Amino acid sequence: xxxxxxxxxxxxxxxxxxxxxxxxxxxxxxxxxxxxxxxxxxxxxxxxxxxxxxxxxxxxxxxxxxxxxxxxxxxxxxxxxxxxxxxxxxxxxxxxxxxxxxxxxxxxxxxxxxxxxxxxxxxxxxxxxxxxxxxxxxxxxxxxxxxxxxxxxxxxxxxxxxxxxxxxxxxxxxxxxxxxxxxxxxxxxxxxxxxxxxxxxxxxxxxxxxxxxxxxxxxxxxxxxxxxxxxxxxxxxxxxxxxxxxxxxxxxxxxxxxxxxxxxxxxxxxxxxxxxxxxxxxxxxxxxxxxxxxx
Length: 295
Prior knowledge:
The chain starts with a strand and ends in a 5-residue tail after the last helix. It has helices spanning 17-25, 45-56, 91-105, 129-147, 165-175, 185-190, 194-201, 233-241, 256-259, 267-290; strands at residues 3-6, 30-34, 61-66, 115-118, 152-156, 180-184, 205-209, 249-251. The protein is of the alpha/beta class. It has an eight-stranded parallel beta sheet.
């Protein structure tokens, strides 16, 4: 399987060409960039121009972009008005959120990428037919805008009543939107069983988010090398291999230092931490790819 790394691993820091260069030097061929404005400020033309120039001269490929979840630069802590959700039932409130997502999709005009990863709703959100209608209206607009820029929208399974594997299949069936999926192992684990969730989604899976957790919190642990994970990775990798070539192995991990609320470090030390995390990510790739059920 092709290897891709999400920059979620560095999401609390501004995405720079130095970080991308470290990823490339680690031998990872492609990335998914997480659209959090403290990390990638897709509204900032200077940052976008810098990244555009770097990607044009680089062998590292931009596989996908994760749609913004908040408009602020502090993970939504400025208040509920910062949340970006396509399930907002009031059209006058939803359209500015759709416009925000369009700003992220427009990154493709500077740095081409294949997929935009989109949530339906937020964590823990209850099911409601009105929210399905709102998401349908938003995704009709967004899909057209994305296709005009060579981008395909993928819906992600997340832990709410709108985006389990069954609900995503329900959504595409009732709306007749021909949308494919990104399969998130950690989110599936929170919903019960990762392999059974994958079985429902597998025909439409075009990308992955690979990480682990203990079944209660979305902790984005490094599979096999971090303590506390509960996913059976031999079974999960066997399931992934059943659709070989349909999607990459894409790690979406959390910096262990950030997870432990470790104080911020000087930039020189930050580079050392990044390199250490990249070495751990490479170890995860190697160990996952070498897993076999018959061992």
